[in-house]
Queue: 3 jobs
Job 1
Amino acid sequence: MTITRGQADRRRAILEGAFTVFARRGYAQACVKEVAAEAGVAKPTVYNHLNDKATLFRQAVQAAAQTVLDERLAALEPLKEPGDLHATLDDVGHRLLELHADDRSCALRRLLYAEITQFPDLIDIVLEYGPHRLTQALADRLARLTLAGRLSANDPDRAAEQFIALLTGPLEARSRMGTRQIDDAELREIARGAVRTFLATFGTADG
């Protein structure tokens, strides 16, 4: 069966509306009628695209996780051919912090923490679209920079894990696990601190 552009757009609107409602209300309190209103479609249209509330929830979480991952992978693109490596890492770190602290990412983490017991299969979504995918992609960039003599990261996987931890650890603490808004100046400060520490360990004299 061929899916038309209109059908794809409606499905996307339904999933985005569903994620908004589930993030706002939680799974138990959310209802399909509210999802339909949020998506701007009729309630039967929701059921035409997704059979039941549980399927709607899983699909909405997966779509949000895919969007979050795609944005993070795009943030790593400047590391393919960095000029000033220090400045590029500062910019990449800042962008990753922006994405980690945005409304969608925070809502996604809250939903996963709240519903993982009722929906243990959500762990499959975490494995497919979660932080380790970002770490793998970052490790690939760091390995290439090491081969080019720009870094000294003999274990790129560990270096990538540590860079992410240097960014998200302070952010989670300062934002009180996403409950306090962090302004851009503070995000940049966190990024610069993370990059200084990272390069003190993995930098090279001529990098």
Job 2
Amino acid sequence: MKGFQLVFSTLQSRKHANGDHISQWLMDIAEKIGIKGVTVLQASQGIGRDGKLHSSTFFELADEPLEIIMNVDEEACEKLFKVLKEEKLGLFYTKIAIEYGTL
């Protein structure tokens, strides 16, 4: 299949207006759209769009960088981005054309 790999970058502490963490909110939206594979990766450090170093330390796990990764077909991608645009989250993403499948 042809589609896209979507990678969203955020922080553990970042929340949606409804109170859910952005990572959980994205997984919930993906599930509603029918996206089956979502992976959340925790990083030890990262430099954000703000130019600041963010890291997971013993004292401040809320600043932990996260990546939410999805492999989606074009239809699911369009549905997801429609929702994201309506929400106006200011969420950083990368979108890469891929071929994917199961062997």
Job 3
Amino acid sequence: MTTARDLAILALDVPPGRFVEQGDLSLALAGAEVLDLLEAGALTLDDDRIVPGPQAATGDRLLDEASAALSREKPHETVEDWLWRRGRELSAAYLDDLEKIGLTTRRRGRRIPLRTGRSVPVDSAARSHAEERRASGEPVLAALAAVSGIDDEKTEPDENVTGDTVTAVLATVGDAVMELEAVRQRRAIENAAFDNIWRGM
């Protein structure tokens, strides 16, 4: 299992009342893919630029798709640019993939049994693996779960444990999520101001 897939499974298993922003999750998933591909030897980082390595199948459909999507032209893409480009609707792609391979099911509505609710992970080896990684406090998954809103506790990865490169990728993901939140807040303020103008007319 990949870190990205573990993260996607954990996002579906949040307690009732907690809301995970799909944009935040998409950015975190794109960051997880960078780290998965780095571990697989499919890319290296030159400062903050992603340098693709030889293409080889990873055994994971979405990770292979990510590898194929790497920019192979110089100057190579920065991690930040990758997050915004690859992250677009990525959480929906992972949810769809989890459904296709039978790792999720949809809750039936209480009042209308035929109407389906949100997707939830089924009991599986994949779910157990993701939960075991989370329970162990594995630093990369913990940091991504925190920045995407899956977990409350914000964790700063220890550079001595994760290494400079991984820490830099995680920091870039955190910055991107904060930037997205700033955009949300700005839009909310603009929409509220627009509503007030209409009320005053």
